[in-house]
Amino acid sequence: MTCDAIDKIGKAVADLRSNPVSAAAGYIRHDEFAVGGIFWCSGYNWRCTDIGSRVITAIKLDREDDPSWYNGPPYGVAEAVFDEYDIEGCTREPAPDDGASAAPAPVAGGKSLP
Questions:
Q1: Among 50, 26, 49, 39, CA closest to 105
Q2: DSSP 8-state secondary structure symbol assigned to residue 75
Q3: How far is CA 17 from CA 40, 47, 83, 103, 107, in A?
Q4: pLDDT in tens, the chain (114 residues)
């Protein structure tokens, strides 16, 4: 791959990240995540647990029977890593076609993302 091709790819990625259409559609950019913030991905409610330079980690909020699993760190549930490609599918609210309820699951200590 030539340097010109790499530069073009870099510019295309930068353009996608600054695209106001994705922001208007409710998608979250990497810089909008906050530790403890709640977001949606793949029909599930998630809580951000850490933010890296290119990734975030989060726990899935699907254990309604015992919210103590979400106390941490360390957490009683596995943390998932979302890379830059996974982050592209994260939203502030569930997508209308994913079958999830519009209200986030009640979770102690969680806060919505801006």
A1: 39
A2: P
A3: 19, 22, 14, 27, 30
A4: 666 666 666 665 565 555 544 444 678 999 999 999 999 999 999 999 999 999 999 999 998 888 888 998 899 999 999 999 999 999 998 876 655 544 444 444 555 554
